[in-house]
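Let us practice reading a record.
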Amino acid sequence: MPLILSLMGRPSPTPALSPTPRYYQVLGRACEIARAAGHPVVGPEHFFLGLLHDRCMPVFVLSELADLEFVESAVAGVMSEPGYSPPQGHLTPVTEHAVQPWGFRTADAMGDSYVGAEHLFLGIIRARDTVPARVLAGLVDLDALEAAVLEVKNEPPRAAESAVFLPQGQVLDGPLEAALRESLPAGATYGVNTRDGRMWITVIGPGDTREVVNAALSSLGRPPLD
């Protein structure tokens, strides 16, 4: 089934807003989830599951308040119920994807020039009628969750004591992200950020960050940390 772009009654997302690479990464995963389910439009539930799989900043915040595996199974459970209706919208043929551009309005309202995972996440939970928001409302205080995400978003980036910096010239590309996920101990996730043009990585949960990063680099044949 071909997928097309749904703009939910809006001619196009704000042109000045530029999606981040992570946004596109979550988008790709959301499209895969929608295709696998046979849904014609990629909506908030697909984006939300893509966020959970990506383990980005707002998901780290959520993990402090709720069990991520339970949340994912609960959202998937709603999508498998007989009364569930897949996302619909005004469809405009653009590409092979059918996407409702969640997060653009949120970023626009916040005065940001980019659209990231945090805008996507906030846009989904602010729309209280979405499947993810309804599931989360039974588990956490959505206002408190939003406040926690905004607090982290607005903090100046700083590396935790357990963080490690990637060697000069190395970037967190797709192969390294996949290798990191493979190297993580059970129950752990990782966070990333940049300072002075260099990227740091922090393992959140069980496991030593340096060991995890070196294992991932070694599996790709790349130089280890200093």
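A brief commentary: The domain at 5-154 is CATH 1.10.1780.10 (Double Clp-N motif).
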